[in-house]
């Protein structure tokens, strides 16, 4: 994630030395969350706030000591092969977790960062190192670190994550992708997990294909500014799914501080939060249906390499999810469509209908055989 730190605000945000200053900083952080209005969160939260959903954050680790994440984080494994040290861990991951499941703090939780799905749970899986960690280059070449993302995806799925957020990309040597990661993505999709990833931050340069965003089935997310214009750094690709706020985004940083940053990382985290809302309200939807709901609910017509299907809208995504569930209900093995609580208890009547249909089919087939035999005798 690019960190474009505006000096006046950063000086205030990072200087948390006394309770009074901390309160002022937390209040400022909430005021700066311009994305909440853009994504129509108040309307979406009338239906759900993400309760019951686990979102795996595959990142640099999440610091559960931050007051905005109190009680929201489950610690998973460290798959990097590098022990946390020197304060060089958890900054980026904590920021992404706060944008997904931040709960704020203070009276009425009115201070600090509130996430898109503030009642969801974060499963932290450390799969990469911070950008400024000198051991990052070493991690790329170590055997233990080569498949950390693939192993992280599988771990998340096996431990109940319904949504997997991956604000990762090119900077960690993933311009080409890998067979292990692609197989892990398919493993997750087959087991009902929704995967979201950042599109990448070199759109104003090489604009390279970026993984894991480019894997089939992953919701690839680009970034827009306050005017809903695509950010110059946001990668533009045909596989782009949607765009979300990604400039001047306030997020948690470390155990008690905040930071302002630019990047598709933040945008992806917000879309992961919207996926969690959809999952919470409509748990029977497939990953493909969740993706369609998010794309169909975006505020733009058509598709382009710049915007994907458009700027995400949490309220519209939930409305589309409801429509998709009613139009394309999940089907049980017995062939009976249902949505919501599950199939009704009509086993006896259904069996009678099936038997009658089979008898009718058998009679029809028998008549065809007789007719065919007569034609042959002629």
UniProtKB/TrEMBL annotation:
Keywords: Cell membrane, Hydrolase, Membrane, Protease, Serine protease, Signal, Transmembrane, Transmembrane helix. It is found in: Cell membrane. Its main location: membrane. Residues 322-343 are annotated as: Disordered. The chain crosses the membrane at residues 352-371. The keyword Transport does not apply. It comes from the Bacteria. Residues 50-310 form the Peptidase S8/S53 domain. Residues 1-22 form the signal peptide. The active site is at 59 (charge relay system), 92 (charge relay system), 265 (charge relay system). GO terms for biological process: proteolysis. InterPro entries: Peptidase_S8/S53_dom, Peptidase_S8/S53_dom_sf, Peptidase_S8_Asp-AS, Peptidase_S8_subtilisin-like, Peptidase_S8_subtilisin-rel, T7SS_pept_S8A_mycosin. SUPFAM superfamilies: Subtilisin-like. GO terms for molecular function: peptidase activity. It is a single-pass membrane protein. Pfam families: Peptidase_S8. Belongs to the peptidase S8 family. This is Type VII secretion-associated serine protease mycosin. It comes from Nonomuraea mangrovi.
